[in-house]
Amino acid sequence: MTDTPTPQSGVAQDVPSGPRVPVSSVVANIRDYGLVLALIAIMIFFQLTTGTLFKPVNLSNLVQQNSFIIVMALGMLLVIVSGHIDLSVGSVAGFIGALAAMMMVIWPLGPLSNPLVVSIVCLVIGGAIGAAQGYWIAYHRIPSFIVTLAGMLVFRGMCQGLLGGGSSVGPLPDSFKQLSSGFLPDVIGPITIVPPIVNAAGKTIVGSGIVLHSTTVLLGLIGVALFISAGIRSRRTRERHGYAAEPFALFLVKTLVVSALALFLVYQFALYRGFPIVLVVMGILIAIFVFITKKTTVGRRVYAMGGNIKAAQLSGIKTERLTLLVFVNMGVLSALGGLIIAARLGQAVPAAGLGSELDVIAAVFIGGASAMGGVGQVISTVVGGFIMGVMNNGMSIMGVNVDWQQVVKGLVLLGAVIFDVYNKNKG
Amino acid sequence: MPSYILEMRDITKTFPGVKALSNVNLKVEEGEIHAICGENGAGKSTLMKVLSGVYPAGDYEGQIVYRGKECRFEGIHDSEKIGIVIIHQELALVPMLSITENIFLGNEQAKWGVIDWNANERRTRELLGKVGLVEDPNTLITDIGTGKQQLVEIAKALSKNVELLILDEPTASLSEKDSQALLDLLLEFKKQGITSILISHKLNEINRVADHVTVIRDGRTIETLGRGEISEDRIITSMVGRSLEDRYPPRDPKIGDVIFEVENWSCYHPLHADRQVIKNIDIKVHRGEVVGIAGLMGAGRTEFAMSLFGRSYGRKITGEVRLKGKPIDVSTVGRAVDQGIAYVTEDRKVFGLNLIDDIKNNITLANLKGVARSGVIDELRELDVANDYRKKTNIRSSSVFQKTGNLSGGNQQKVVLSKWLFASPEVLILDEPTRGIDVGAKYEIYTIIARLAAEGRAVIVISSEMPELLGITDRIYVMNEGRIVGEMAASEASQEKIMRAIVRGEGKAAS
Questions:
Q1: pTM of the complete model
Q2: Where are the domains of chain B?
Q3: Structurally, what CATH architecture does the domain formed by B4-240 represent?
Q4: Are the C-beta atoms of residues A337 and A356 closer than 8 Å to each other?
Q5: Predicted confidence (pLDDT) per residue in A164-196, tens digit
Q6: Given an 8 Å threshold on Cβ–Cβ distance, is A296 in contact with B375?
């Protein structure tokens, strides 16, 4: 009886059906574009002020410093989309790092202290930790904030206890450190485009000449080619089924810009030592999570659960099990994050991962996820993570005091969310 | 000439697109108990909201004259200041605060912002004495029953020096004994000169305490009856007396074998373990049949449907469900859906839709398997499905990518229906399928229901709108207080018959 159509629907009702004009898709994605543009603007800003941001060696550093944040942010995205939060990820990462170090260096495990075995065991334990926390959240409806706050204390304590107070444990085996500091081997061998200049002493001047890591170049080219062909293929299928795809011009611009950007980065990496291993790991994970969130029923259900848990339950979705799964996933990724941190430091320290939960959560929210659940994108989260990372890196190079770095990061987080809320109210 | 404490003159209240009240008149004499009767949605609550200032002056047309003076309330505070206090059907008490804290919430006896708890408690004891409630003032609200909570609400009203007390269905959730005590209290207040307005469906209660009855229907005053004129028949006729227009699509029902049976179904309240909400219900539905469940709000219809649908409501659920003669397991929503049962909720915004997601994703949510292969969604197939149902159910939107939160009520309802049609159920339970949607969209939904029945499915429609049930169903069960109190073929049913079954079946089991 009290039918109150919103203004939008009043307008929309008169729009004829049939092939849709995708103007709306541009508007809908304006935020995502805006985020990417913001990242590019920030990068250019630091490039101009420091002059070193885009240097190949710095790009590798950037990836190696921030990969663990991004890896954990992928799990955090699902946690936040499902309407929860996980404050324990930093502590879990620290604990797993300590555990890995103890297993590889201190405990006499014999052949079991092999880095690969230890890593797998650690990932499983991470999953178990996630399950332990998720169990209370999913089946007993204890607020995730409280359960994971407890987890944050418990696992930080266990991390420190395991390491025996304030000491650090190391050094970790070189093969394990490859996870963070290693580069893809150049199977094909370097290609010399411009021979480096050799100085009088017979040594090559660093940075002179152009020698490319050919495996990286090849992988980059293959990746970009796959990206373009997949875009074209998806357009074709849509058109065959009578659905209008986005306008060709937009598609072209988008594809070209992304490809050019990707090739530029590939080129920079190839100039140095090629793709860092951790970048490859991260790239594979990002691809997997894009696939899960966009294409699978599990992903769809997580979004539905976060959007309206009651409607999801009444649609036959087992929300408890799904919540548990989301936290198990978070646990595994926290463990991976912990391994990456330990590998980068070459040892386990009591403060490993301390405070990183905040960076991880910030990355997800800067990426436009909603604190109410149901909204959030993998790619945006990754971009959000890199915005944080580039700011860390750039401000450090500029010599900005760590305290002020915090202030700036805090303001960026607040600004991003205000921008979001403002946009939503306007739309 | 009696002296009127309150006169509401020509009150008209319009919501966007609908007139909730048109020229309603209400005259209440000083010191009487005045009952207001009407079907759900007739406009009783809206009228009381106008009176108490929930809808501020200027939001409606007409005059409110209280003790000879015209009043223009800007909010509840203004009406309470001059002694008009309303007690809503859903009690407005804070469960984890004590009786004293609740009674004086927002009105604490304090000096310089420091609460004098002794004074508050003393006053509370006095007030509790007046309403006849023997409880420690420090008891938490959550620890006392609904009947006592109702009394706390009244004590709270008294603390505000009430002169005109409005009770909106105060006995709806009370036991027989508590109801009697409450009515006695109203009579006691009457002696003390407090005027009451009682909104109630229960004609025996009205008969017992009311001096006048005003009947409202479709947002209009039908008549006001004096003490001598009050009779059940008269009130029922007044309440439902409207003609059945040609608002329903024609159907040619082809009724087959029994497909769906529920036997001896019972369930208890999820929080109050000793309150039985559903009491031994048996129903049967045939193939191709549309069965209605009639009843007033709070009769337990939604609770019945939800307890049936994967135990989504209540606990200690017992009974048997049979599909095509075989007992089936409906203990989780997933199982119920797999067995071919669907439930379209009464509250589409809270339970039906993910409002921040688009039409497409909402339509496929209950049957993602239908558009996926080994867990991977086939995007194009999903689009085809969504577009197909958008066309079939005539959802008006720019595309299937429009967010459901931006659709009108009728179109939202069509999305929820589409979701369940795509799950291709054998038995479809529709809970208030046309609530809050306009006449045109209603017709479309009736057409969909007719089509489903024609396809040989069984449809159960729960509705508070009796004309709707009479217009679209083949058979009607009448429910009241958790029981089936009547069953009739739609062709033999009438609004009077249904109302009579409800009123006379009060507290009795069906024969």
A1: 0.78
A2: 4-240, 258-504
A3: 3-Layer(aba) Sandwich (3.40)
A4: yes
A5: 877 889 799 999 999 998 998 888 888 888 887
A6: yes
